[in-house]
Design a protein that fits this description.
Number of domains: 3
GO molecular function: kinase activity
CATH topology of the largest domain: Leucine-rich repeat, LRR (right-handed beta-alpha superhelix)
Largest sheet: 8 strands, parallel
Structural class: alpha/beta
Main location: membrane
CATH architecture of the largest domain: Alpha-Beta Horseshoe
Transmembrane segments: 425-447
Helix content: 10-25%
Distance between the termini: 147 Å
InterPro entries: Leu-rich_rpt, Leu-rich_rpt_4, LRR_dom_sf, RLP23-like
Strand content: 15-25%
Pfam family, one: LRR_4
CATH class of the largest domain: Alpha Beta
């Protein structure tokens, strides 16, 4: 009966109340008249859907009357005046089977928590748009929300934090045509089934600090304006999508000093999932304490931008499972706060920069499955990386904990040969000396008669002296 003029039917509530088997009732914009007390006992025991949108004479008494409808599943009161937070809170709590509620454009004032507090876990539709509600929206993450992001998403001009992570959101992120969400500071849409391109409206969100779009089905190129239009960005997570493009082309941010200096201007706390150090961890702390870039498991190509090395406050960098080429920048040693570095499963070449060994806070490193070559550094922090798995898949790498380099083996073999030769010469010189000395003495005695007689006399006198000394000692012992 929607849009039928029922302004003269003053007994409309009594009439519908006489139909206890009524299940669906649509009376939107029917100019229903005001209902005066007393109201009849509630008799709509089967009602499941009720639409009274546009009822300008709606009042708290009617709301209390309908709150007896325990079978009610969907209630539409859009454009109804006279609604307040307190009676709405009581009604929502009483309607135990309610899973859909529309209260848009009702000029409701008060704290939004008063309405949301009694919503059951079975709720799948809620519209509170175009009201005067205040307060904080509770987290909607880790639920089973299985819809698309609605178009009015673009009209939330004052929104600062939105967390819809780990749900079942699908479809494309709305393409807001004009600058919107300009006050947005934190956006978590990770762990859903969102598709389409990188959301273009984000180019206007110059207050954005945290952006997490990981674990979705986003495709296309990562735009270059990520570096230039988001000067306050501290946390960027795009892992496990289908994004591609030249990573080097993204880095166009020039004012790196601002990137560090402005960290202290933000002090609200928030939880962040970071895939680093070989596991996924939840960090709940002041945002200035955690800075991270996670672009893993995409189709990014090109060299690692040298400009990234200027992010001296970066703690976690994960570029694994892409198609990156070129060498690891030598200036990576500038990132003194780096704790976790994962460059595995790419096409990087060249030697491991010695500057990496100067990163005193680096506790996790993975360079496996690249085309790196040369000697693995062994000094400073690298002395703690003893797991061969972090280097596997790089046939040109050598030294601890991998097999020794071929040059080292050749050097050791040469040294062993030299030692063997020196020992041989030393033993040979001793033998030759003995032979020469012994036969030289014998030869002299044979050739010179006087020397031979003198030598034998010396031996006789020495033997006599030894005999006398032994005899004297034995005699003293007997006494």
């Amino acid at each position: 009966m929607s849009h039928v003029n029922l302004s003269k039917v003053t007994t409309w509530l009594h009439e519908i109340n006489s139909i206890p088997t009524l299940q669906v009732l649509h009376l939107r914009y029917t100019h229903l008249p005001h209902i005066a007390a007393p109201l009849p006992p509630f008799n709509l025991t089967s009602i499941a859907t009720l639409d009274l949108s546009g009822y300008s004479s709606f009042n708290t008494a009617v709301l209390r009357w309908f709150s007896n409808a325990s079978s009610l599943r969907y209630l539409d009161l859009a454009h109804c005046d006279g609604l307040h937070v307190e009676p709405l809170q009581a009604a929502v709590g009483a309607l135990s089977n309610l899973n859909g509620l529309c209260l848009s454009s009702c000029n409701i004032e008060g704290d939004i928590d008063g309405i949301l507090r009694n919503i059951s876990s079975s709720f799948n539709y809620l519209d509170l748009s175009s009201n005067e509600l205040t307060g904080t929206i509770p987290t909607l993450s880790n639920n089973n929300i299985n819809t698309t992001l609605p178009p009015f998403f673009c009209n939330m001009d004052s929104l600062q934090v939105l967390d819809l992570s780990n749900n079942h959101l699908s479809g494309e992120v709305p393409n807001c045509k004009s600058p919107s969400l300009t006050f947005l500071q934190s956006l978590h849409l990770n762990g859903n089934d969102l598709s389409g391109k990188f959301p273009p409206f984000l180019k206007y969100c110059n207050q954005l600090i945290i952006l997490d779009l990981g674990e979705n089905k986003l495709s296309g190129k990562i735009p270059t304006w990520v570096g230039s239009n988001l000067p306050l960005l501290r946390f960027l997570r795009l892992r496990s999508n289908m994004l591609h493009g030249n990573l080097n082309a993204m880095v166009v941010m020039q004012n790196y000093s601002r990137l560090i200096i402005d960290i202290g201007n933000y002090n609200y706390s928030e939880g962040i999932l970071i895939n680093a150090k070989g596991s996924t961890n939840m960090y709940t702390a002041i945002l200035s304490l955690v800075t991270s870039i996670d672009l893993s498991n995409n189709n990014l190509y090109g060299e690692i931008p040298k400009e990234l090395m200027n992010l001296v406050e970066l703690h976690f960098l994960n570029l694994s499972r892409n198609h990156l080429t070129g060498m690891i920048p030598e200036k990576i040693g500038n990132m003194k706060q780096l704790e976790s570095l994962d460059l595995s499963i790419n096409f990087l070449i060249g030697e491991i920069p010695l500057s990496l060994s100067t990163l005193n806070f680096l506790s996790y490193l993975n360079l496996s499955y690249n085309n790196l070559s040369g000697r693995i550094p062994v000094s400073n922090q690298f002395s703690t990386f003893n797991d061969p798995a972090i280097y596997v898949g790089n046939e040109g790498l050598c030294c601890t904990p991998l097999p020794k380099c071929s040059k080292d083996a050749e050097s050791e073999a040469t040294a062993a040969d030299v030692d063997k030769l020196e020992r041989t010469l030393y033993i040979g010189s001793i033998v030759m000396g003995f032979i020469v000395g012994f036969w030289g003495s014998i030869g002299i005695m044979i050739l010179r008669h006087g020397i031979r007689i003198a030598l034998f006399q010396l031996i006789d006198r020495t033997c006599d002296w030894i005999y006398v000394q032994v005899a004297v000692k034995l005699k003293k012992l007997k006494c």
